[in-house]
Design goal:
This protein is mainly beta and 272 residues long. It is built from three helices and 18 strands.
Length: 272
């Protein structure tokens, strides 16, 4: 899908020419060879930031991503995390001149439709090709061959949503290092009110209670739920949801329109 060039290696022969000097003249020192530039640390302004795609072109024409998807790149401490609508691609990066070198790319294994799987593979290949980059304020442009991806700083493109006032829909389940999609047909939500109460549907039963926030920690209390029995996928989702909100220690993080609740190795990811 992309035209990526291959880097060729060329041998360089250095010819040394001896020059005659007048008797008694001091020898002229030869200049030291200029070393090849080594990959540098991430440039100031790129690390610890996230960017979202604002456009993609190929051969100078607009290139459409799968409907409802967007490229998301997160740079942190020499690591690069990338998403194109399904799985997360992760690895390390360094800067070599005006090129971004991405190595060690691994990918999660969430089940998605063929179009989004193909888009994941396309983005992984693009990043692995060593694209050139231009960073100007909140704008980042990556180019490889005839493919150009333009991105905008996430805090400008998608400001963080407030915890209160949104209905958060459960989209992913976290168990250790495994992130899986909510089973098809299962719906779970949580909503926080500014009076310190919350309402929840856990995929099977509904209820609510009270919550308090302290920094990035959130504590749920006085939780009351209906008691309808659910089996199969609905029961499994309910079990994980109740385990998280019932934990003694729960942290939360909001990234744009995404809310993550984490209790030890168990976690829930919501989208507003």
């Amino acid at each position: 899908m992309n035209a990526f060039g291959r880097l060729g290696l060329t041998s360089l022969t250095v010819v040394l020419v001896a020059c005659s000097q007048a008797p008694g003249a001091s020898p002229t020192p030869s200049p030291s060879p200029t070393p090849s530039p080594a990959p540098s640390a991430p440039p100031v302004g790129l690390d610890a930031r996230q960017f979202l795609s604002s456009g993609v072109t190929q051969d100078g024409a607009p290139f459409d991503l799968v409907a409802g998807t967007r490229i998301r790149l997160t740079f942190a401490d020499g690591g690069l995390s990338a998403q194109a609508g399904c799985n997360t691609i992760g690895g390390n990066y360094v800067i070599d001149g005006d090129r971004l070198l991405f190595t060690g790319g691994g990918m999660t294994e969430m089940g998605c439709d063929p179009a989004r799987h193909a888009q994941d593979d396309w983005l992984a290949a693009f990043l692995g090709s060593g694209p050139t980059f231009v960073l100007a304020g909140n704008d980042l442009v990556l180019t490889s061959g005839t493919t150009v991806i333009t991105l905008l700083d996430r805090e400008v493109a998608e400001p963080d949503q407030p915890l209160v006032g949104s209905t958060w829909n459960l989209v992913s389940l976290i168990s250790g290092e495994v992130v899986s999609s909510v089973p098809i047909g299962i719906s779970a939500t949580i909503a926080f009110a500014d009076d310190g109460t919350f309402q929840i549907h856990d995929g099977c039963n509904s209820g609510g209670g009270r919550y308090t926030v302290d920094g990035d920690s959130i504590r749920f209390s006085e939780v009351v739920m209906t008691e309808m029995a659910c089996a199969g996928a609905a029961g499994q989702v309910e079990q994980l949801v109740l385990a998280v909100i019932g934990a003694a220690s729960v942290t939360f993080a909001i990234d744009s329109n995404s809310l993550t609740l984490q209790a030890g190795l168990a976690g829930l990811q919501f989208s507003s």
